[in-house]
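Notes from hallway chat w/ T.B., transcribed later so I don't forget. T.B. wanted the structure written out for a chain they're using in a teaching module, and asked if we could keep both sequence and structure tokens in one place. Agreed to drop them here.
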Amino acid sequence: MLTRRSINGPAGDAVTKPASAAATYDCAMSLAMRWTRLLMVVSALGFAGAAYAIRAVMDGPIEQYSGAALSGAIVYTIVIFIWPPVSPLPAGSAAIAYCWFIEFSQLTPIPAALSQRSWLARQLLGAQFDLIDVAWYPVGVIPLVAAHWALRARTRSRTNPTPARSEP
């Protein structure tokens, strides 16, 4: 939202000036961050819905592997939700590292004990370690990193078009 502000002029009278370019930039960034966060919530819900739908209709390795990949995708959306301006590679690295941290923490008895007491804890922490999941988390994250990278490059090319070269 572009606003005007009042300041005192040289004679002490109120003078109204338009908001600075920085304020306009902050407003635009705020709107972009809001849309990004909304998109991340919708995406996370979509990934979770897909995971539960697959679990409802399938059984076996597809259910297990897709669950790990979609969990990685959900964590990626959470990283972007928390810090919208983050670059794709650090966001993907953080998402994979977090997934691996949770998976390797399952080597301790703590997640299993919490999972027995709470459905939510079971969804967030899992119950037992599976080395195959370690490989499947990046499968869910890497396509999102690539899409994020492409979208970011496309957005930058629109906002900062390269001038056409003139031939001598």
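Follow-up for T.B.: Residues 68 and 135 are 9 Å apart (CA to CA). Might be a good example for the class.
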